[in-house]
Amino acid sequence: MHWIDLICSVLGLTCVFLAGRNSKYNFWVGYLYTAALFVLFWKRNLLAMLLLQPVSLAINILGHYRWTHPREEERSSENEKSLKVSMLTWPQRILSISSVLLVAAVWGVLLDRLFPADPHPYLDCCVTALILMAQLLSAMKKWDCWIAWLFVNCTQIALHLLVGNYFMSVVSGLYLVNGVWSLYTWMKLYRKKA
């Protein structure tokens, strides 16, 4: 295990724990986490995930703003300065899934041709597309984000095992447990319009 693995683990677990508990402070930890992940993926030659970090930073900034500046109809019943949890419609879910599959396939072909150093370009791109979707849904405070995060965690476990990043596989397992709990917690918030 390298020092960057430990830093990423602590920051990542803290960030998702806070997000799952509906805390806007998850974004501040997320900014540090993004920087640490950039270093980690650089060292591991996971290029699609490396290139994701500037996009993740932009989504984090968007989410931070959305969670703390809701429109009138989006305000939480418990705090008018907080965005309430909502859900995607079924057509939006189908569009989200289709988008992930299309982006992963196209990005996988490009990555395989342009950066042959990536040991698992298609799995790398699938995880990357899933992360982008999960982050966007999280930024919009959609309950469905936790379903996406569960898929992310499962594929990340496989990817980290394939590249020999065993410690991060264990951390992804902890994310999986947090994702299940957060799915339940956000359902309660959705029902309370909080």
What are the main properties of this structure?
mainly alpha, 0% strand
Judged by helices, strands and strand pairing, the structural class is: mainly alpha
Rg of Cα set: 16 Å
The proportion of residues in beta strands is under 5%
Biggest beta sheet attributes:
none
The tally of strands reads 0
Q: Secondary-structure element sequence?
A: HHHHHHH
Helix content: over 70%
- Whole-number count of domains: 1
The end-to-end distance, rounded to whole angstroms, is 40 Å
Give the overall pLDDT as a whole number.
Answer: 91
Q: What does this entry look like structurally?
A:
This protein has 194 residues and is an all-alpha fold. It has one domain (3-76, 89-191). It contains 7 helices and no strands. It has helices spanning 3-20, 26-44, 47-68, 90-114, 121-139, 145-162, 166-191. Helix 1 (3-20) runs parallel beside helix 7 (166-191) and helix 2 packs antiparallel against helix 3. The chain is globular, with a radius of gyration of 16 Å. The termini are far apart. The mean pLDDT is 91.
In short:
By secondary structure, the chain is mainly α.
List the SSEs and their pairings.
Elements lengths: L2 H18 L5 H19 L2 H22 L21 H25 L6 H19 L5 H18 L3 H26 L3
